[in-house]
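Much of our argument rests on the idea that a fold can be written as discrete symbols. The amino acid sequence and the backbone structure tokens for this protein are reproduced below:

___
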Amino acid sequence: MTTPAREVVASPAANGSGLALDLRNVHSYYGHIHALKGISLTVGQGEIVTLIGANGAGKTTTLRTISGVIHPQQGEVRLNGQRIDNVPPHRIVSMGVCQSPEGRRIFPRMTVEENLEMGAFARRDSDSAKQQDLERVLALFPRLKERLKQKGGTLSGGEQQMLAIGRAMMSQPKVLLLDEPSMGLAPNLVEIIFDTIVAINRTGVAVLLVEQNALMALNVASRGYVLETGRIVLEDEAQALQKNEKVQKAYLGIE
């Protein structure tokens, strides 16, 4: 596929609003493999931004770099203006960034309740505050409330995805990173997950969404980026990306 010319839309900072996340010229590697080749992107306070691209484009690597699992060899990652690119992952969670990973990665032998409690491991506030957040998560995902004492591994795929997102929310994130939340789910469950993402965002949590279902992602996002072989090749408002001919052909299945 021919790499399209990059088109730039004004960032939230240019519009006078604050940035939750700000990546500047980030280069990340797996050994000698140059996975991210100078990407720059922003997520505004309270914004949903989506990152779309083919398998192997570097989407998960971008999230892992933000989370601190990978430290970039060049460039900066900032959370609310503070650099976090050399901060350990557990401290990044404490600072307000949490990721719901691809494949859910719940603890299958632990109960739903124990999985959710693990999401609050980095918090140092009161048990009552954690209990309040647990109740909020269960209000978002009533199915989990019905299965609190059930082992995570016995849940359906959709319920495990709810659990993975709920566990992330227990850390009180300012920025929520979602990696392929609809993967392997039935259409009705996909709608539930995306409705919940919007509901979470309405509480003020900024969301960076990596999603194979590009149309659904662009429907809920305000802006989007297209990543190809470690480079951002296109960025625009989500509605404009839906109308972009290159995006339609490559990611939306529209000829």
